Amino acid sequence: MSKFKVTFYPENKSVEVTKDTSILSAAISAGIYINSSCGGDGVCGRCKVLIKKGRVLSQSTGLLSEEEKDSGLRLACLTKVQGDAEVEIPQESRIDLQTAGGGYAELNPQVEEIQIKAWAGEKDFAYLPLTRKIYLELSPPGLDDKLSDLERIYRHLKQREKTPVLRTGISNIRGLGELLRSSDWKVTVTLVKRSGSTEITMIEPGNTSKRNFGFCFDIGTTTISGQLVDLNTKKQLGTKAAYNKQATFGSDIISRIIYAGKPEGMEKLHWAVTTGINEIIHGLTDGEKVDLNEVTSIACAGNTTMMHLLLRIAPTYLRREPYVPTANFLPVSRAIEAGIKINPHGILACSPGVASYVGGDVTAGILSCGLDEKKKLSLLIDIGTNGEIVLGNREFMVACAASAGPAFEGSGVTSGMRASAGAIEEVSIQPDSFDVSYRTIRDAKPRGICGSGYIDLLAALLKAGVLDKDGKIKALKHRRIRDGESGREFVIVFKDDSGWEADIVVNEADIDNLKRAKAAIYSGVSAMLRHMSLSLEDIEEIFIAGGFGTSLDIDSAVKIGLLPDLPKERFIFVGNSSLSGAQLMLLSDEAREKLVDIANKVTYFELSAEPAYMEEYMAALFFPHTDLSKFPSLKK
Amino acid sequence: MSKFKVTFYPENKSVEVTKDTSILSAAISAGIYINSSCGGDGVCGRCKVLIKKGRVLSQSTGLLSEEEKDSGLRLACLTKVQGDAEVEIPQESRIDLQTAGGGYAELNPQVEEIQIKAWAGEKDFAYLPLTRKIYLELSPPGLDDKLSDLERIYRHLKQREKTPVLRTGISNIRGLGELLRSSDWKVTVTLVKRSGSTEITMIEPGNTSKRNFGFCFDIGTTTISGQLVDLNTKKQLGTKAAYNKQATFGSDIISRIIYAGKPEGMEKLHWAVTTGINEIIHGLTDGEKVDLNEVTSIACAGNTTMMHLLLRIAPTYLRREPYVPTANFLPVSRAIEAGIKINPHGILACSPGVASYVGGDVTAGILSCGLDEKKKLSLLIDIGTNGEIVLGNREFMVACAASAGPAFEGSGVTSGMRASAGAIEEVSIQPDSFDVSYRTIRDAKPRGICGSGYIDLLAALLKAGVLDKDGKIKALKHRRIRDGESGREFVIVFKDDSGWEADIVVNEADIDNLKRAKAAIYSGVSAMLRHMSLSLEDIEEIFIAGGFGTSLDIDSAVKIGLLPDLPKERFIFVGNSSLSGAQLMLLSDEAREKLVDIANKVTYFELSAEPAYMEEYMAALFFPHTDLSKFPSLKK
Q1: Contacts of A193 in chain B (CB under 8 A)
Q2: In this predicted complex, what is the ipTM?
Q3: Best residue in B324, B350, B356 to probe A by mutation, most A CBs within 10 Å?
Q4: Quick check: B170 and A337 CB within 8 A?
């Protein structure tokens, strides 16, 4: 079959592909991530590329204007290679658009000891990490002590361990005789508990017990966050976040599931997520001079689709009635079975899920905020691509998912970026002059706007009278207000003052995305309370979670109608609660057992089956809401 | 590197090898098994081959006579290929010399239901096979029952199972969603208990539960015996035995362990044993029209060296002081991890061992004869290449190994063969005429002599006055008595009356081998009793085990001094007790648990460390013994 060379610019990266390969696939092969919300179906129109040279065949589409077509723009998914070609990928068509550090963001560079404790918890969870290393100095066998090599290790361990059932795999036994003798009977064993018994996953010569590391991960639809933890000192050595490269195959869960059903779809999605995970692992271990062989375990939390794709479990039936997962409780497996590259004997544990749209990220979130321990009624709102909402206390828990989209994660909005250095996270606007003040993460030059920045920005635009309740930018005469390609726009930072190559703006299309996201969350909360015959006043504490930076302005979030109008002291911002839950999982066996209890206790509530939901949603498509009586503090 | 073609005759089988490959290695590559007791060290002189054509380079050796050298004979292990060559392998240099059916022997062609019971046991063991298939008709999920696919299976099983902890591997989960739906929620799960929890090893569409098969194996140093069992009906569908192809690399355990330490030695030994196992599996399943995918488990008993080699665990330290195994208790693993080809999800369980020279064959033997349940003192004597002896009862058990060699397995003796069709198993000789009467297994034309036949033969030769107490054949004038290459010999069947291409004989070298074997066993028993300050009279029951046919004449065995002179009613012939134990293991969880108890209870007794042993051995190198007072019944 004839092969053609496709070169992508500005990277100047080439890749050889067969005839009729789409430009989208070719880009993926070249390691370049093109935006494609619909997963290559030619529906979203986001994967525009410029054909500079060469023979291609494009399917006609209404998603490109005549001017765009004339200038050489094509949709990457509908364009097939017919000969050698050169392709330019515009910034607007890229994923990882404005992220510093090659797609990564360091969230917490400082070394901190982790409190193994829920936010609202009363006591610490007992420390017992997912994998433990124990250094053994065995007595060598003699004529009066002829116990076999393996049972000698077991005997030694049984004197120390509470869970005495010990087992190991053949691969650890094969060279054991030589290993014990060449290491003078001094070895380090790595232990993991699974299915109630303690297993030796690895036996190493000498004392390696001082070096034992793990990772916790939150695998989100849009963002993957990982943290390197020293399992001995409980210190977090670094955190990185990166966009989930699966976004190339669709921006939301549904499009990913559809893509997984295409030929090689599953393999590509699996490859994309593990590549992201491996890059984060590589980045953090490299920086901390941790050898990959010293990483012995991974604790993962993520929504049900993400967990299925990570383990290459077909997600097909997650989106078919009656929407059941293949498995909610996933067995502890070897990390390499999921393509994750740590120590070859390293293990992977996944947080258990509840239902197709309430996954292990939600149970991990409940664990980390301690909602399951609360006496009084509490609410957990996780603002992500799937906005998950949990209502309950130690007696009961109900959870639902509100499809919010990735806008609050800085994806799918013109100047959006993840909460990392240079992201605008706080904004205020002078009412008359429209002078803008802002604060960026780590006070770096502004490069874009992150979720908390957008919440502040919308609140500020409303307050300054730039934005009306419907989400339209008023046609005011000001140098910051102008018409753009996606409707009227407001310039927050002009190019010259920014650390970016364009003005940092928000336009009406962005505002529409943000409005839909906040409406989905708010109406989810309302519908759920209504279904349970409860009112907002019954709620004592509201945990707000999400991949924002270090803060989220609750006032602003109420002002735009994202959060319900309740006394400020009832809100607790808990950050990435899924990652925090995975962190607890990594460090405490008690926490891991609690997760199982939580997953068994939570009842799934199907929002779309609730007749009131659509009505609530439509009513919430205003700033803050069509029914102002719900926002009494704003009436003043 | 240049490659040369070596062709072996009379098979006319060719193989391509690199320059300097030994003829022995080339033969192994061609699938032809040459005798080599020393494992290719050029010491035993058994691997004589005839170089018919071609360039070879031979190391000089005193093990070939000048006549042999002149006629073109060389030792295969000391001869290296220098060009294309043609090699004839004489019958005497072959393994599987006289075995019917391509190296296999069908021992029990009839279909019998197995009694799950020890010989001396009072009650049956509870039936619960190693792997069980359970057919499930699941209720499909609905809007009011949204349990995940995997937990749906668990729920269903938990209603039926006593051991509720259930787990499975990722590979069984991956395609589960599709499998359940395409099979209309009717599936068969295969369960195995390991480390105290029940595991699903396999999920198949539809009802396959009616077809569930297992194999039990006794892996001996010289002989491998396997049996196909229907795990549902408890019927044994067939038994086959074959010589262990590892014999090419040495006839006893020590030479195998040494060979394992050579480059690629371990791989070759592992390959040899698994090839043998796979051939037996293939032969029996083929004959019974059982698909390999329907075979879900294997229970193996074997000595410690055999188990180490089967699982590719280095056996190095088994023969170095203080002689400890790498592991006595081997984890239940996948059969394919040991290279055994059954269902890819099929599992392998090995009987636990006690020490380097008292292995899982002994614990299985104890289980099958029920020695561990006896109130009074009992003895188990397993007559094999390693003669194992167990003394004890329900209070205590002591075991030792007496290196007997393979003579009683029909190996290393001129006309020896395994107990299979055509093997002479009973012999009597008229005192004056020296007329020989014999009975062969399945009344086939005689092809050789098996273990029980040799015992009878020696007793008959003594009785007829042909053999003196020292093991020499008297120089009597008779057509059956003549001088041969290996000393004087006695012809049992002349070529014309046999089903074989030569006279069936026994010579003084054979008798010497048999004498050493019987002396090793007898003196082992004596030394052990002496060490425990017990006498023969204290023993209530003696279980005699070994790979003989259906019978063994106890009188003859006493007459030649193999067994102690005790009343005949105290002896029980139990056949291959290791295989019977493996059979119980395959069919009963209770038996599997008992095996663990037995292995923990048995104390190893090192015969070579016992000062009296050598003295006892030397005294036993007579027929029946130098001290006739030990054989009062023969004095008459």
Answers
A1: none
A2: 0.86
A3: B324
A4: yes
